[in-house]
Amino acid sequence: MAKKQDEKKRFTSMNYLKLYDRIFKKNKHIILKTDNKILFSSSLENLSKYWYTFERVSMDLHHDERKIPNLMTDFEVQYYKNNRPIYYVDASFRD
Predict the structure, then answer these.
(1) Cα 48 versus chain centre, distance
(2) Contacts of 55 (CB under 8 A, 6+ apart)
(3) Among 18, 47, 59, 65, which has the minimal tally of Cβ within 10 Å of its Cβ?
(4) Dihedral sign, CA of 42, 63, 79, 30?
(5) Poorest-pLDDT segment among 21-25, 33-37, 46-50, 78-82
(6) At what angle do helices 37-49 and 14-23 cross, to 10 degrees?
(7) pLDDT at residue 10, as a whole number
């Protein structure tokens, strides 16, 4: 289970979402990819509470039948080779 202090460091924590409001005035858009199921679940919850809408959500990006466009990171390549799922969300908030 994630520690409370680690939750504040996540890019989808409420503190960061409020910061994005100041930086990006309109049409906020977040794409998140992770191999961490707990982080992903927490991110979906926070984004939803903050009124983001989900354009696309995938529990296994590389095996999703929709063939979501993706540029793989170095970590992602390693996870793919080990057949680990990559969780993906494309979320936006429009004023």
Answers:
(1) 12
(2) 90, 91, 92
(3) 65
(4) negative
(5) 21-25
(6) 50
(7) 84
Separation of alpha carbons 57 and 25, rounded Å: 24
The model's pTM is 0.86
Are the C-beta atoms of residues 43 and 88 closer than 8 Å to each other?
A: no
In the numeric block, which tokens belong to residue 6?
């680690």
Cβ atoms < 10 Å from Cβ of 19: 12
DSSP structure class, residue 90: E
The C-alpha angle 35, 37, 39, rounded to 5 degrees, equals: 90
- Please report the DSSP string for 36-84 in residue order: -HHHHHHHHHHHHHTT-EEEEEESSGGG-TT----PPPHHHHHHHHTT-
